[in-house]
Amino acid sequence: MRGTQQPRSLCAIRAFGACGRIFIPRAGAGGFRIGPRRAPIAVRSPSGSPWLRSLEVAENVVVFRLRRPNSGPIRAALLADTHVGLDPLAAFDSGHQPFANATVAASQAQESEPEIVCFLGDLAWGSGEDGDYGRWQQVFHPLMAARPAVMLPGNHDRRDRMLRRFAPDAPVAAERMVSVVETPQLRLIGLDSLFRTDVVPGLLGESQRRWLGEFLDTHDQRPTVIMVHHHLGDDDQALLDGDRLLALLQVRPQVKAVISGHQHVFRCDTAGRLHLLALPAIGMPFHPDERLGWLESSLDERGATLRFRGVAGAEDGAEQRLTWRP
After folding, report:
1. How many CB atoms lie within 10 A of CB 51?
2. Is 19 in a helix, a strand, or coil?
């Protein structure tokens, strides 16, 4: 979310479907070392597709890893900017009530039976209070109970509170939380762009960019999609090191797209042949003509099929197809 509106009334529960590995860059070290490892845990989505998850804990960067051994497209629900607060009746100046909008989106997503659900930041109302995440969990627990989830922090979130509530085995002092989702045909990588809570622009930082470059260079070249809360742009509200991220991605052709939230608008752009996909907001719009909703998606090694699902009176959209660069 780029800015903050004042609530008419301000007055927030717990589930983390994602699992993973936690990698930590040691201070002064050139690479990453992996901490203690838990045995893999198998979970199944409503479609019956198994996902394997394990947890390794180290120091500064938490990387949640999910693996699905069987092939086929990933059916994912992509949601961003829910802005749920403790008070379910809280409304922005525009009259939009995030709790009501999120409840509709959660129900729609549940009915679509995705294999995985991805939340691209700004889960909470304004400054990531514990009560916000409690109310948020009340809304989304049914959706996350039967499938893995990826949760990325935005500028209105608190990383430590997210970890404490949704991933209690992870170190709450971690400086970054990153997700890796893998199938035989496709990889999703979720980055952490939270610079400071309630400070609008985002920042990956040198260590996270270095981790990403090393990860991409030392793993196989399967098609990869990057997810992050802040968008790439030259405005003061964007990802501050977005130019360095873009330079890193442009020379690695296995990266096909960057998906972001933060702008509160559904838009498909390109940078060269790299797709830049902006997700709509769920909580509230910045402008009256911006539709609220989320994306029902199917992603594979060739591209992605997207369908806009509307909330707060917005109509559902037609399917759109993105084709990855070679």
Report:
1. 25
2. coil
Cβ burial, residue 168 (10 Å; 0-12/13-18/19+): exposed
The residues that bridge with 295 in the sheet, in sequence order, are 78, 308
DSSP state letters, 54-99: E-B--SSEEEEEEE--S-S-EEEEEE----B-SSTT---TTS--HH
Dihedrals φ, ψ of 286, to 5°?
A: -85, -30
- In CATH terms, the fold of domain 23-313 is Purple Acid Phosphatase; chain A, domain 2 (3.60.21)
If one counts every other C-beta atom within 10 angstroms of the C-beta of residue 236, the result is: 9
Collapse the DSSP code of 144 into the 3-class scheme (helix H, G, I; strand E, B; otherwise coil) and give the result: helix
* pTM flag (> 0.90): no
What beta strand segments (E) does 91-217 contain?
Answer: 116-120, 149-152, 176-182, 187-190
Beta bridge partners of 274: 271
Strands 292-299 and 303-311: antiparallel
- Hey, is 226 helix, strand or coil? strand
Residues 271-299 pLDDT 10s: 999 999 999 999 999 998 999 999 999 99
Q: What is the pLDDT of residues 204-263, one digit of tens each?
A: 999 999 999 999 999 999 999 999 999 999 999 999 999 999 999 999 999 999 999 999
The owner of tokens 């679509």 is 112
3-state DSSP helix/strand/coil percent for the chain, to nearest 5? Answer: 20, 30, 50
Alpha carbon dihedral 146, 186, 175, 1, in 10-degree steps, equals -80
Count of CB atoms situated within 10 Å of the CB of 163: 21
The tokens for 172 are: 């709450």
Can you tell me the distance from the alpha carbon of 134 to that of 13, in angstroms, rounded to the nearest whole number? 2
**Rg, Å, the chain Cα set:** 18
**CA 45 – CA 53 distance, rounded (Å):** 13
Question: Could you tell me the sign of the dihedral formed by the alpha carbons of 187, 188, 190, 191, in that order?
Answer: positive
| Closest of 229, 241, 174 to residue 203, by C-alpha | 241
